[in-house]
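Structure in, sequence out. Go:
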C-alpha cells in the first residue's frame, strides 16, 4: 500500500490509483465529510464562486470530477447567483466506479439529471484527446443497471471556457501533461481552476497536521470504510504534491498567465487554490 509514484511504472501507477478510487467510491462522500469535519464543502463553495464566470452560458469541464461535488456546485451557483440555466458541465474521471456513484447521486439529488446541462465522461486528465475503454461496474448494485452507458469521447482543442480540477491533479502521474492538456482544451481566455492541498507553513501546525493525517485519517478510513490502505494512499499523495510556489511555476510553464496580475498568481499564493487565466 505504500507506493512511491516515481518508482512504479506509469501503467501500474494508473491502475493502482484506479484501484484506490474504485475501493473508496461508495464511501467517498461520507469520508470527505468525516475527514475534513465538513470543511471541504466550504473550500469547494469558495473555489466555485471564485472561478465561475458570472456572464453565464459557458462550457465547463470538471476533470477528476469524482462523484460530482464540483460539477453540481457549478450548476447550483450559476443558477442561484447568476440566474444562469445555460451553463453546461461535463464531468470527466478516469474511474468508472466514481463516475457511476456520481451518476447515482446526481439522479437522486439534483435537478440537472437528464438535462443537457450535465454530462459524464470517462477519460484521463493526461490524455484528454483519447478515448478509454469503459469497464463494467465492479459493484453489482442494482441501481447501476438503470444508469445510461458511460461515454468516452476525445475533448477537442479550444472547446472549454472553464476547466476545473479539484483534489485530482495530485493523483496524476505527470502534472505537467495535465496542465498541457488543460491549456489545449481551453479556449483562448478560458479559465483554469485547480483546488488542491498545499503545504502548511507554520511548523507547529504542520506537525499537528502530519500527526492527524498519518495517524488519525487511516484509522478513520478503517472505521468508516473498512479501508485504511486507500486513505493512507490519499495522505501520502498529499505529502508528495509540490509546494504552492512550485505548482504556480508549473502552471505558468504550461503557458497560463493571470490578466492584470502579471506573472505571479495572487490566488495561488493567497489560498493555495488554483487559478484563473
Ligand atoms: N473532484 C472531486 C471532489 O473534489 O470531490 C473528486 C476528487 S477525488 C479525491 C480524485 C478523483 O481523481 C478520483 O475520482 C479519481 O478517479 C480521479 N483521477 C485520478 N487520476 C485521474 C486521471 N489521470 N484523470 C482523471 N481523473 C483522475
Amino acid at each position: 500500500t505504500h507506493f512511491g509514484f516515481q518508482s512504479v511504472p506509469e501503467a501500474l501507477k494508473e491502475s493502482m490509483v484506479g484501484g484506490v478510487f474504485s475501493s473508496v467510491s461508495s464511501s467517498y462522500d461520507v469520508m470527505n465529510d468525516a475527514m475534513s469535519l465538513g470543511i471541504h464543502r466550504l473550500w469547494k463553495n469558495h473555489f466555485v464562486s471564485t472561478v465561475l464566470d458570472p456572464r453565464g452560458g459557458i462550457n465547463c469541464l470538471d476533470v477528476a470530477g469524482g462523484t460530482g461535488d464540483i460539477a453540481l456546485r457549478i450548476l447550483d451557483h450559476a443558477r442561484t447567483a447568476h440566474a444562469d440555466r445555460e451553463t453546461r458541465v461535463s464531468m470527466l474521471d478516469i474511474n468508472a466506479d466514481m463516475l457511476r456513484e456520481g451518476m447515482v447521486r446526481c439522479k437522486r439529488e439534483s435537478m440537472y439529471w437528464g438535462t443537457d446541462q450535465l454530462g459524464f465522461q470517462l477519460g484521463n486528465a493526461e490524455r484528454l484527446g483519447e478515448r478509454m475503454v469503459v469497464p463494467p461496474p465492479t459493484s453489482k448494485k442494482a441501481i447501476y443497471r438503470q444508469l445510461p452507458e458511460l461515454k468516452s469521447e476525445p475533448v477537442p482543442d479550444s472547446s472549454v471556457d472553464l476547466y476545473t480540477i479539484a483534489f485530482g491533479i495530485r493523483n496524476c502521474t505527470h502534472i505537467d501533461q495535465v496542465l498541457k492538456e488543460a491549456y489545449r482544451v481551453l479556449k483562448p481566455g478560458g479559465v483554469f481552476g485547480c483546488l488542491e492541498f498545499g503545504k502548511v507553513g507554520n511548523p507547529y501546525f504542520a506537525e499537528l497536521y502530519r500527526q492527524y493525517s498519518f495517524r488519525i485519517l487511516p484509522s478513520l478510513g478503517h472505521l468508516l470504510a473498512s479501508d485504511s490502505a486507500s486513505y493512507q494512499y490519499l495522505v501520502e499523495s498529499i505529502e508528495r504534491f509540490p509546494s504552492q510556489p512550485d505548482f504556480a511555476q508549473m502552471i505558468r510553464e504550461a503557458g497560463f498567465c493571470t490578466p492584470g496580475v502579471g506573472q505571479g498568481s495572487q490566488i495561488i499564493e493567497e489560498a493555495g487554490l488554483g487559478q484563473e487565466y
